[in-house]
Specification:
alpha+beta, Immunoglobulin-like, Neutral Protease, domain 2, nine-stranded mixed sheet, five-stranded mixed sheet, 11 helices, 31% strand, globular, binds zinc ion
């Protein structure tokens, strides 16, 4: 790897990298600090291997670990103790298989807040370095934390190894209201990015807490004869998954069913300390002390509304979740896992992991709680769409993942569009209003008076976020990505023979294609080209381009473009 830091007279300090182990070997950029924070602005990033441009765009640039991944993960067994408010300690047993000859040292991601005590390979202690300063590597660019494990001998292709990591540290924090914030959610166990594997997780945690993890709960939580006594629960993945995690809190549980799938919500009695306090402007006319012929004395006072109680609204969220699972199962095939847990998480971020959704406290608010926050009508609809959005990630993001950062927009756009389709099914006017809002956001201007859409095409992925467009990735992948899917869907529907146009939504060519895409890619990663190929297979004849079943024009003009649909 080569890293050159260059001091330019005009541009200031910037970096140029060449890294032969990754797919886009050459890149250049610069760290820039503005009012809203520091951003690494990536100016360019590309591959120099001798693949034709067409082949490259078909195959995609590959995952960040490069074209040949040295290790294949077979399964994980993790035994963890979680001691609120902060501590996690764990033993992770990982079976891997070498995919190539010769590697002597392999990088794993693991939170910098976890201290590695030992690493063993086939029962023998091996050398490791935690958080090495590999400045400029693809991983440090993504801001993740690393452990380098040094094997006793170079790996041989096909060789199986049993690794054991022992570590502990403070990765949780207490948020108030019976909630914990699980930091390092994706790096609490050693992993290498988006590899899928089977997970068998066992947790010990004190009485009074409820812990929910990815996978199927093997048996009701029991008690271990530890001193002090601890609860024990075990969670086993239904199928290989790319992310395993857990959430815990002082939860109340509600449940609903979508067919045979159990949807359980876990919500606390309260919200985190930092949750915005709702207020109500009320005009209170005090009772007159004596009859008055003039205007009665009126005072306007601010009444602090009662604190929201997510637990009280948990059943509604479970029912909403069940409706979303039913709706998406009709479009994209059966729900991929045996159960779905929707768990409250402090903060305004939500994430949909395989069978486990981390759902912001905001999503557990009852309508009257939301009204105290003075959200606009559309914002209320958008915030209600979050539950469905995260559930749609069970299909798009979890079951079918994305190949490289250039394809990540696909799963955001698919999840977002899916949540709006559910809305459209019962409130088409609101669907139209939200699509219009996304469009307005794209032509809104940033501080430099440039339209947000000028941040770049969806295929730049997280590079869209930079010092000039601090929300670039979110605005473009959600907003423009959703529009791209809507254009494809309506174009395919409207070019169908008239007789076919009144069919139910699942029979539209766009959704037939997505169902095929799911079947073809479940448990694997897709590229933008893969989506287009699936759509081309269902493309109505009158939408063919120059006699070809091809969406190349859409790829070049729209996916790699920045214009806003009219
Ligand atoms: Zn999402």
């Amino acid at each position: 790897m080569l890293h050159a830091r260059i001091q330019g007279n005009k541009l200031g300090n910037f970096d140029i990298y060449y890294d032969s182990t990754i797919n886009e070997q050459v890149w250049a950029g610069q760290l820039k600090t503005v009012d809203s924070g520091s951003y690494y602005n990536v100016w360019t990033s590309f591959s120099v291997t001798k693949r034709s441009a067409r082949k490259q765009s078909e195959e995609g640039p590959g995952d960040e670990f490069g074209p040949t991944n040295v290790l294949n993960f077979l399964d994980y067994k993790i035994q963890a103790s979680v001691i609120p408010p902060r501590q996690l300690s764990a033993e992770a047993f990982v079976n891997v298989q070498a995919q190539a000859d010769g590697a002597r040292a392999v990088l794993f991601e693991l939170s910098r807040f976890l201290r590695v005590k030992s690493v063993k390979c086939d029962g023998r202690s091996v050398a490791f370095i935690h958080n090495p300063a590999l400045e400029g590597s693809q991983l440090s660019r993504r801001g993740n934390d690393l452990v380098l494990v040094v094997f006793p001998a170079p790996l041989k292709m096909g060789e199986r190894l049993a690794l054991q990591f022992s570590y502990e540290g403070d990765v949780l924090s207490e948020a108030g209201g019976g909630l914990l914030y699980v930091g390092a959610r994706g790096t609490w166990y050693p992993n290498r990015g988006s590899e899928t594997a089977h997970f068998d997780l066992e947790f010990r945690y004190p009485p009074g807490w409820t812990l929910v993890a990815t996978g199927k709960q093997a048996a009701p939580a029991g008690t271990a004869s530890d001193d002090p006594p601890m609860q024990v629960s075990r969670w086993i993945s239904d199928r290989p998954i790319s992310l395993a995690g857990f959430n815990l809190g002082k939860y109340f549980r509600s449940e609903a069913h979508a067919g045979k799938t159990l949807i359980a919500t876990y919500a606390a009695a309260g919200v985190e300390r930092t949750f915005p306090k709702g207020t109500e402007q009320s005009s209170l006319a005090p009772p007159p002390l004596r009859p008055s012929f003039g205007r009665s004395r009126e005072t306007s006072v601010t009444v602090v509304s009662p604190p929201p109680s997510p637990a009280r609204n948990a059943q509604t969220v479970a029912d909403e979740g069940a409706r979303a699972v039913e709706f998406f199962s009709k479009l994209y095939g059966p729900y991929p896992y045996s159960q779905l847990s929707l768990t409250q998480m402090p903060g305004d971020l939500s994430q949909g992991w395989p069978s486990l959704v981390f759902l912001s406290s905001f999503s557990f608010l009852a309508p009257e709680d939301k009204s105290h926050l003075h959200l606009s009508d559309l914002d209320t609809s958008l915030s209600s769409a979050v539950v469905a959005h995260e559930i749609a990630h069970q299909w798009w993001g979890d079951l079918v993942s994305w190949r490289s950062y250039r394809d990540q927009w696909l799963v955001e756009a698919l999840a977002n569009y899916s949540s709006l389709l559910l809305l459209e099914s019962h409130d088409p006017a609101r669907f139209t209003a939200i699509m219009q809002r996304f469009r307005d956001n794209l032509v809104a201007r940033n501080k430099q008076e440039r339209e947000i859409v000028q941040a770049g095409p969806v295929s730049l992925g997280v590079r869209l976020t930079n010092s000039e467009f601090p929300d670039g990735y979110e605005m473009i992948s959600y907003g423009r990505g959703t529009w791209l899917l809507h254009m494809l869907r309506t174009m395919m529907r409207d070019t169908e023979p008239a007789a076919a146009r009144s069919q139910p939504i699942s029979q539209e060519p766009f959704f037939r294609a997505l169902l095929n895409l799911r079947k073809q890619f479940e448990g694997r990663a897709m590229t933008t080209r893969d989506l287009l190929k699936a759509l081309e297979a269902e493309l109505p004849h009158s939408a063919w381009h120059n006699g070809q079943r091809s969406l190349d024009w859409f790829y070049e003009g729209w996916i790699n473009g920045v214009s806003v649909p009219k």
